[in-house]
Design a protein that fits this description.
By secondary structure, the protein is mainly β. It contains three helices and 19 strands. The chain has three domains: 78 residues, no CATH class; 45 residues, no CATH class; 128 residues, no CATH class. β1 and β2 form a beta hairpin.
Amino acid sequence: MSTKIDFIVIKTDKDGMFISDNVEGKSYFNSRIHNLLFDDLALVKTPKDNWYKIDHLPNKVTEKTKNQTVNNRYELKAGFPVSDLTPQTIPYDEMDEDSDIKGLYSYTFDTIEGAWEEIEFNIEILSEEDRFYVEKPKYLGTPSLITQLTTNPALYPQRDCIISGKEFYKIIRNYIKTFIDGKYAKITSDYDFCLTVEKVIHLNEPVPYTVGGGTKRKPTTITRYRDTRAVVVLKTSPEGYSGYPTQKGISGENQEDLDNKVTKYLEDLITEINSPMKDCVCCKGRGVILEDNEK
C-alpha cells in the first residue's frame, strides 16, 4: 500500500471546497494529488498550482500502482526468415549483446496495467473563507509580517498584502514602456533609478526659433518652427534619486484586491499619458484642451 498522504482543505461560502497536498506551501513541490481519485472521481484543477476543487470530503482515496512490464523479449523483424539460427522470439535474458543477429530483432514487452489501491490519508480543514482566490496573481504582493508568522502560506492570497515602492516602480516602468503612444507622450529618462515621462502638447500656432548654421567665416541663422511643447506628466524613482519623488508602494486587503488596484492605477495612468492634448486658443499656451484622437 502507498504511503500515507496529508491534505489541507479550504472551505468557502461561495465557491465550494478546495484541496491540496502541498500542506507546507512549498514553492517547489512534487505533488501526487493529480494522480489520485477521490471516491473514484478525478479532481478539477484550478489555476492555482497544486490546488483542486472537490465536491465533498472524501471517504476513500485511491492511487494507481505503476504498470508492470512482463514477457520482455526480442521479436524477429518483418522480412527476415524464421530458422534455427533466427527464431521468431528470443527471451530478453537469452539475447547475446554481441550477437551478429541482434540487429534483426526488435525489443518488445507486454504491459500489465497498475491497479487502483486505497491509501491512508489525513485531511486538515485549514480555513473557512468567504471565497478562495485561485487565480494566478498578476502582481504578486508580499503578506504582512504577522500574516507570515501566523498563517499557512496557502492563505496568503486571502490576507492583506503589499507591493513595495521599489517593486511598484518596476511594474509602472515596464507597463509604460509597453503601452505608451509616441504620438502623445515620450519617455525622457528611463533608468533603474529614475523615470520621466513628458506629455507632447500640440501648439495652436507654430513657434519660430533660430539655430546657427554656416561656417565660422560665414555664419548664418536659420529659422525653424516648433509645433509641440513638452510637459512632465510623471517623474518618479524607486529611492528618490536627485530630486525625483520616491515611488510609493500599494497595498490590498487581499491578493485579488491588490491586483484590481494595480490594474486600475496602471490603466488610469496610461490613459492620462496617452490622451492627446493641444494648446487652448483662448489661453494662448497657458492652458490645454483634449484633442479628438479619432481624427
